[in-house]
Amino acid sequence: MPIHVEVVTQEKKVFEEPKADMVLIPASEGEMGVLPHHAPVLTTLGFGEVVIRKGGAEERFAVYGGVVDVRPDKVVVLADLAESSFELDMQAIESARERAARLLTEGVPPELNRQAALELRRAELALKIKSRLQARGAVLRIVDQQENDE
After folding, report:
1. Whole-model pTM over 0.85
2. Cβ-count burial of 3 within 10 angstroms (0-12 exposed, 13-18 middle, 19+ buried)?
3. d(CA 24, CA 2)
4. Higher model confidence: residue 17 or residue 110?
5. Does residue 45 sit in the same domain as residue 105?
6. Are strands 13-20 and 3-8 parallel, antiparallel or unpaired?
7. Are residues 26 and 55 in the same domain?
């Protein structure tokens, strides 16, 4: 029996796969693997990468906080912010990282300090994820696989 997976933000449903084999979740307590028939869990998401596997294909999403609801037959990732790891723009990420680092070193008003620190953390995570993907080379994606099935 496969597991149904949804990745959702406040703005939209980012991804849905009704027949995934496995989900890796960056829970705030550490990495969590979820297979079909997993015990129910409700936990917070840390900053990290959600990996959804189906056969030899996978989808990956950079997530920046939120919660995840795990049930025996379904996983719902309710992310504060989520974007496809495959679509991360290295130039935009590097620019955001430099801007946030500059703001933190030059000093910002106290009300903007937390925002700059979060922007820097997001950019550094995105760079790490994108670098790992580039090092792995080509990956068969679930989305591509679904398009070929139609």
Report:
1. no
2. buried
3. 15
4. 17
5. no
6. antiparallel
7. yes
Report the C-alpha gap between 15 and 9 in whole angstroms.
Answer: 10
Answer for the pair 93, 83: CB distance below 8 angstroms, yes or no.
Answer: no
Q: What CA–CA distance (Å, rounded) separates 15 from 53?
A: 13
Number of domains in the chain: 2
52 & 118 share domain: no
- Which amino acid, residue 19? K
76 contact partners, CB below 8 Å, separation of at least 6? 5, 6, 8, 68, 69
Q: What is the pLDDT of residues 58-117, one digit of tens each?
A: 999 989 899 999 999 999 999 998 888 777 666 777 777 777 777 667 776 666 666 767
Q: How many CB atoms lie within 10 A of CB 75?
A: 25
8 A C-beta contact, residue 63 and residue 26: yes
For the chain, what's the residue count?
150
Quote the tokens at residue 22: 């496995």
